[in-house]
Amino acid sequence: VLRLLRGPLGLLLGISVVGAFAQRVYLTMEPIVVAQAGGSEAIGAVSLSIYLGSQALGTLTGGFLSDRMHRNHLLAGLTLLAFPAHFLAVALPPGRLPAFAMAGAAGFLGMAMMPGILVKAQELLPEGAAVSSGIVMGLGWAVGSLGVLATGALGDWLGPREAAMVSMPALLIGTLLALHPSLREGPHRTRR
What is the pLDDT of residue 2? Predict the structure, then answer.
C-alpha cells in the first residue's frame, strides 16, 4: 500500500482524507455548537439530517458529473466550493434557514467528490480496482476521522464553533491536490 501511495493514488487519498475530515468535523461538532448556542437536540438532529440527506443527492450528482466532466477539474471545483459551505454551516447561527441551507450544500458538495475519487483511483490502478477503492475510501475515511481528535482538543481551547471553523480550510488542500500535474496524466499501470 505504501508503494502505491507514492504516486497519483496518494494524491487521491489526500483529497479523500480532507473531505472525510471536514465531514467528520461537521458531524461531530455541529451538535455541540447547537447545544452551546442554546438550541435543542431537535435542531441538532435536523442539521445533521439535512447534511446526511444531501450527501445522498451529492453522491448521485457527483457520479453523473464524473462521467461527463474532467474529473480533476470537478474534484478541484468541488473541494473549493465545499470549503465555504462547510465553514458557513458551522459559522452561521444554528437553527435558522441559512445554516440549514449551508448544511445541505456542505453535505452535497462533500459527498459529490467521492464518485470522482473512486473512479479516478480505479483508472490509476485498473488491475487493482478494489484495492484502490479500499485505499481512497476505507483508509482515507479512517485517517480523516483521526483528525477530528485535533479539532476536539482545539475545541476545548477555542470553543467548538471556532475549532470547526479553523478546521474547514483543510478542504483547500484537496483543491491543490486535485490540481497536481501528476493527476492530469492518463491511467497508470503499477507494477506489482
Answer: 65
